[in-house]
Design goal:
Domain TRNA-binding: 594-692
Helix content: 40-55%
CATH superfamily of the largest domain: HUPs
CATH topology of the largest domain: Rossmann fold
Subunit structure: Homodimer.
Number of domains: 4
Radius of gyration: 27 Å
Region (Disordered): 553-581
CATH class of the largest domain: Alpha Beta
Number of strands: 27
Family: Belongs to the class-I aminoacyl-tRNA synthetase family. MetG type 1 subfamily.
Subcellular location: Cytoplasm
Strand order of the largest sheet: 3-2-1-14-15-10
Shape: globular
Structural class: alpha+beta
């Protein structure tokens, strides 16, 4: 890979984390795929040769469990959902160059080839380990067939992950007091031979890799505890019938762990694309094996460790290229709370379309409501506000009034020169757009288009061309037509269909999808007809009220079903358990005197280090003006501790002392949200300054 700014001369590959073929898609799932699609389209506007691929994750115990409950084979169960995803993504203009699945022949062959290479290079060994066994069912219990207590934090956990506590990845044999999910009876541990990847051998490599990695800060910082700590080898086999068979001799009863074959689908899917279009157009081996390449993974933040610890080690062991960037998106909440598919508290992908909304409206909301790594809070009211105030009032209004005035009064583009001011404004937007993409900031890239449209609206309003004669109005409308073209180019990655409509209204050559940033300043067509109407329609309050009533009714019905003991088919997604709710406002008010009792001070971090043995805790040395305090904060996985010294923070200075993990904490540092966004000062307030 390189660290050259996009566009580079190397082929780029953008991938999205594989959707698990285990349930229906809702708008929370779509955020990752819309973001990946928008980023890949945007790279192409820069002139970057790019492919966009993904596929369905078909293996693993949840699929086997759910298939058994339905009385169908795992393959039939997973293929049904895979086909549903294949149909759904294009309906939201998510346009993969190739969309495969992990059970197809290409991925099976590549996965087994990876493992053989690991063995040849002595990266795999066999070890006898403790594996949970259900005597009553007379079978081994992989992953989610076993539950119990997390050995690290003591919370209830499933066999592969502490999903309710510390979020650690768990290996077979880790669960304390295991219970079989098949029978509900206690399980017992028995000796069993399994295959392990020597992950610990790659620790030094991973330390360099994580420092080279581009993308979002959560992807760069969260894995550091794993990489810099006691890195354990990875068990790569499971006792199951469903999966890819381990290719070694005498291992017929073992399949590969799902997190072995799942990321290899990125390679398989790009190989399938290459075989379809030809290596002269796109060569998958050039991307993965030969020279420099630009591999960007767009994923949900719940699978950061898999993509920044397991995956680069797997690639290194097989002599493949490492990714350039990992961009981890936040979750999508609904009305301030996490999605709950079991309670039907979700906006389903099919439901959104059935309500008659254009897919580009949701794409715009998901891509620009927050930065890549921040959570997005979806509500019909917020959706309405963004559509009405930004897409309808700004973009749609500008495009319609500019082209309508130009067509009626000049039959198209006026015969006038583009003014220097507008040319400079468009050029600055092009630079901002390119900078945003090199910062992996899809939101900022989308905002450049809206900002141009806003500038155009103000320009028309201030110039009042309807009050001018033709010669005076011509330069104004000439500028505005050029602005329309630039808006269409820059907005295309996020709202591709609507941008294409604007392009067609302009009667420009080719298509907006094939346009590059340079086309923003290329000449506009001499003539075009009046637009058929505005690009975007407003959503009225009555429609929002109706949608909220439907949602509330569904939630109440599903909750009542659960209380009555009925089974609700859910296809639970991981965001439900791991995405923190945006809490409702506390109803009980506090008096001003109570607030004044809090001694909030500006502090400056002088030192920061992780607390040994604690997953999330860091020891901070904070100067609060009158003295220096030791404060324990749960930010170890969320911040690069080496970069914190010098950071201004807000400290609750009169909080009672506490002992956390054996370390005294004398105060509290304030932070917002699940990503621990540290509260700081806008100006240069000195340490010790009281916050009022």
């Amino acid at each position: 890979m390189t660290h050259d700014e996009f566009p580079t001369d190397n082929p780029a590959l953008v991938t999205c984390g594989l959707p698990y073929a285990n349930g229906d898609l809702h708008v929370g799932h779509l955020r990752t795929y819309v973001s990946g699609d928008a980023f890949s389209r945007a790279l192409r506007t820069l002139g970057q040769r790019t492919a966009f691929v993904s596929g369905s994750d078909m293996h693993g115990t949840p699929i086997a469990v759910n298939a058994e409950q339905e009385g169908v084979s795992p393959e039939e169960f997973a293929l049904r959902h895979h086909e549903q995803y294949e149909e759904t993504f294009p309906r939201f203009n998510v346009d993969f160059d190739n969309y495969g699945h992990t059970h197809d022949e290409t991925n099976v062959e590549l996965t087994q080839a990876f493992v053989r290479t690991w063995e040849e290079n002595d990266h795999v060994y066999e070890k006898e380990i403790q594996v949970a066994y259900d005597p009553e069912a007379d079978q081994w219990l992989p992953d989610r067939y076993v539950e119990g207590e997390c050995p690290y934090c003591g919370e209830h956990a499933r066999g592969d992950e502490c999903d309710e506590g510390c979020q650690r990845h768990l290996e077979p044999g880790d669960i304390v007091d295991p219970v079989s999910t098949l029978t509900g009876n206690p399980a017992e541990y028995r000796e069993r031979e399994h295959e392990f990847l020597r992950l610990s051998e790659f620790q030094e490599y991973l330390e360099g890799f994580i420092n080279r990695l581009e993308g979002t800060s959560n992807a760069q910082n969260q894995p550091r505890e794993w990489i810099e700590g006691d890195l354990q080898d990875l068990c790569i086999t499971r006792d199951m019938d469903w999966g890819i068979d381990y290719p070694g001799d005498g291992e017929d009863d073992l399949v590969l762990y799902v997190w072995v074959d799942a990321p290899i689908e990125y390679v398989a899917s790009s190989k399938q694309y290459s075989e379809r279009v030809g290596t002269d157009t796109y060569d998958w081996e050039e991307v993965w094996r030969d020279g420099d390449s630009e591999i960007v993974h767009v994923i949900g933040r719940d699978i950061i460790q898999h993509h920044t610890v397991f995956w680069p080690s797997m690639l290194r062991a097989a002599e493949y290229n490492e990714p350039r960037a990992v961009c981890a998106t936040g979750f999508v909440n609904l009305n301030g709370k996490a999605f709950s598919t079991s309670r039907n508290r979700a906006i389903w992908a099919d439901e959104y379309l059935q309500e008659g909304f254009h897919p580009d409206l949701l794409r715009y909301y998901l891509a620009t409501a927050a930065g890549f790594e921040r959570d997005v809070n979806f509500s019909w009211e917020r959706f309405q506000e963004r559509v009405n105030s930004e897409l309808a009032d700004v973009v749609g209004n500008f495009v319609n009034r500019a082209l309508l005035f130009a067509a009626r009064n000049f039959d198209g583009t006026p015969d006038a020169e583009l003014t220097d001011e507008t040319e400079t404004r468009i050029a600055e937007a092009m630079d901002d757009y390119e900078d945003a993409l090199n910062d992996y900031d899809v939101r900022a890239a989308g905002e450049t288009a809206v900002a141009l449209a806003r500038y155009g609206n103000e320009y028309i309003q201030n110039a009042e061309p309807w009050k001018l004669d033709a010669d005076e109005a011509a330069p104004v409308i000439r500028d505005c037509v050029q602005l329309v073209k630039a808006v269409a180019v820059l907005l295309q990655p996020i709202t591709p269909e609507k941008a294409e409509e604007a392009w067609d209204q302009l009667d420009a050559d080719g298509s907006a999808a094939d346009a590059t940033v340079g086309d923003c300043l290329q000449a506009t067509p001499d003539s075009f007809a009046e637009p058929d109407g505005p690009l975007f329609e407003k959503i009225d309050d009555e429609r929002v009220a109706e949608l909220n009533e439907k949602l509330e009714a569904r939630v109440e019905e599903a909750s009542a079903d659960e209380e009555e003991g009925e089974t609700v088919e859910s296809g639970e997604d991981e965001s439900e358990s791991e995405s923190a709710d945006v809490e409702a406002l506390v109803e009980e008010r506090v008096g001003f005197d109570d607030f004044e009792a809090l001694d909030l001070r500006v502090g400056r971090v002088d030192g920061a280090e992780g607390i040994e043995g604690a997953d999330k805790l860091a020891r901070l040395t904070v100067d609060i003006g009158v003295e220096t305090r030791q404060i324990v904060a749960g930010i170890k996985q969320l911040h690069d501790l080496d970069e914190l010294p010098g950071t201004k923070v807000i400290v609750v200075a009169n909080l009672e002392r506490a002992e956390l993990f054996g370390v005294e904490s004398n105060g509290m540092v304030l932070a917002a949200g699940e990503d621990a966004d540290l509260l700081t000062t806008h100006g240069d307030a000195e340490p010790g300054t009281r916050v009022k």
